[in-house]
Each structure stands twice: as C-alpha cells, then as structure tokens.
Amino acid sequence: MTTAAPTALIADDEPLLRDSLQRSLAAAWPALTVVAQARNGREAVELFEAHRPDIVFLDVHMPGLNGMEAARQIARQAHIVFVTAYQDYALQAFERGAIDYLVKPIDEARLADTVERLKGRLQTAAPAQAPVALETVIEELARRIARPVSANPATPANPAIGPAANPLANPASQALASDTGPLQWIRASVGSTLKLIPVDDILFLRSDEKYTLVATVDGEALIRTPIRELIERLDPQRFVQVHRSVVVNLHAISHVTRGPNETADVHLKARPEVLPVSRSYLHLFRQM
Asked: What is the pTM for the complete model shown?
C-alpha cells in the first residue's frame, strides 16, 4: 500500500499536451506531484529510472522509442496510463486489459475517473500485483498500431472554426475557405464534448507543431488549426501576434515589461501565464 504522496511522470512529444495534462492533473489531483516530463519514449525510461514515480502517463505515438516500447521497459514497476489520439480500435485492447487510458484532447470528466481508479490502485496494490495482463495488452496494441492507418481510420477530430452564423450548424465541417469575415467562435473537441468558444472570450492562443492552445478565463482547449490560419481570421483590432507561436487579445493585457535583447513579456489580467514578445513584434507596444 502506498502511503507517501503519489508521484507521476508525463511522456508526450507535444509540449502543449504535456503542460495541459500537468495542469489538469493539478486541478483533479492536488496531492499528485509530476516529477518530470519526457519528450519521447527513451527519455521516459531514463526519467523513470531517475525518479521512480508511482504513475507514468505515456503517449502511444512518440518519435524514436514509442509508448509501447517504453511501457515494456517500465511494465509492472509503475501504474501506466496510456494517452492516445485513437478513439476506436486501440481502446478495445485497453478495456479488455483494464488498463487506464486517456484520449486526446483530454476530457476533464474522463481524467477524473482515471484519477479515482489510480487512487484506489495505489491504496490496494503495487503495480506488479495489479490484476492486469499488461504485457498482453502492450503486444496487442503494438500489433494494432502497426497496421496501415487506412485500416484504422479513427483519428482525433480537427476543430472547425467559423463566422457569426449559427455555431451549431454543420458542426462536422472543417472547411475554412467558404467562411468569410472575422471569426466569432471556435469549435473545439474535448473528449466526446464539443465546446463552442466565443472569440471574445479568448485571452491568448499558443501553438506548437501540431496543436494550438485556446486559453480563456474559464479554462482552455486544444485544437489542431494552425495559429497562422487563425490569425488571418481574427479581428486585427483586438488580436495581435506577439511571437511566432503566440497571439494575444489586447483587451486581456494587464501590462508589458521590457526584457533583454529587444524582447518583452506580456502579463495578463485574468491568468498567470507570462507571454513572450519577440523582437519582431516589439514595435506593437512601443506606445503602450
């Protein structure tokens, strides 16, 4: 039985997803300490050996050593939660083996269920004693994932964004070309839930290679629309790009502080994040 404060490791090659999962875990399980974040499977194994956390959140698809291969090396030394973008074919293997899994983007209710199961397992059994045929599930998942994508078409839904027309009309539409005028709302899939986010509520957007984080006062969502497409459709009187990966709502800014080497930081009124301003965009704030 685990009596010390629980610890966890997060492994995902997407920085936004790692940070988003860590924030969600902090809200859902304040007693849990995330001791490290790994960018790939090899780093996950190395950090696991260094920190020996109780729980490992493993992205299934990572460059180099993937989540399945990392799980083989960590198996039965920690409670493993797989994080996957696949919503159908792989989940059958998870469920048959009673393995915990989360689907990207992470649904808060689903995460809460996983947290409760993990708490119970930490109190009742060490990973090696858990009634889970982990190795069997890993092998089945590895076989399924190795199949051609066309045989397993279930992939994470892309968000749809649109103008001021009825936001519930044609929710599956992904086209941008037919939309005109500044954006009025953004559709974001969070688990099985479709969130309709009014653009006026957005405080900032931050992108990495695959995802864009949409931050509001009430929370955040991850979408797959690149920031370069969003900035073209946002009202330039309200939203400005301040970094190649950051767009900010001017109405959300509390103050701007100058930094070294012709850079600056944007401080927000309603969130603690400090957003970077690169040299190329510093001129936007010279009169502020």
From this structure: 0.67
